[in-house]
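hey so u asked for the seq, here:
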Amino acid sequence: MSGFLQTIRFKIMLALGLCVALMATLGLFGTGGLSKLNSNMSETYSEAVRPIAYLTNVRGAEFGLRGKLWALAMTHTSESAAKILPELDEDMATIDNVWPDHYPAKVSSEKERAVADKIAHDLAEFKSQSGETISAFKAGNVDAVPESANKLADVSDSLIKGLSDDMDINVEEARWSGS
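ran it, structure tokens below
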């Protein structure tokens, strides 16, 4: 047996065995690293990217709603109103579906909570005033629509500012978590 330990064949098998063991060890470390990377990416997505997407969807629906309300105020034909009204309902539904997914569960800091509370207040006011405008139009009170849509501008501007501030907070948190 001691003669076999001195052979080149044994030394080659030993070197090959050590290489296989080293490769297996590197593979295990790589698999562990990939698992940790996957976990970090999932966490970053759920804690940083998804809230930004929610806020972007709410802001887009708010812009759409505001623009369509102005279009409704300027329209004088039932055909164009018939096209605009379902789109208004879609924008309202988007806000109603997306905002509760973000607020209050996905608010991640006290700073963001203060901004999100203001957004929630402005959003409730915005939806209420938008509903009044739509109801006035549906009731045939077309003359009240421009004034009602104009009244909406202040709360809409405040809502846009709040959504932008909340997005900035989430972008900063995403930047920080990536460092």
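DSSP finds five helices and no strands in the chain. The mean pLDDT is 85.
lmk if thats what u needed
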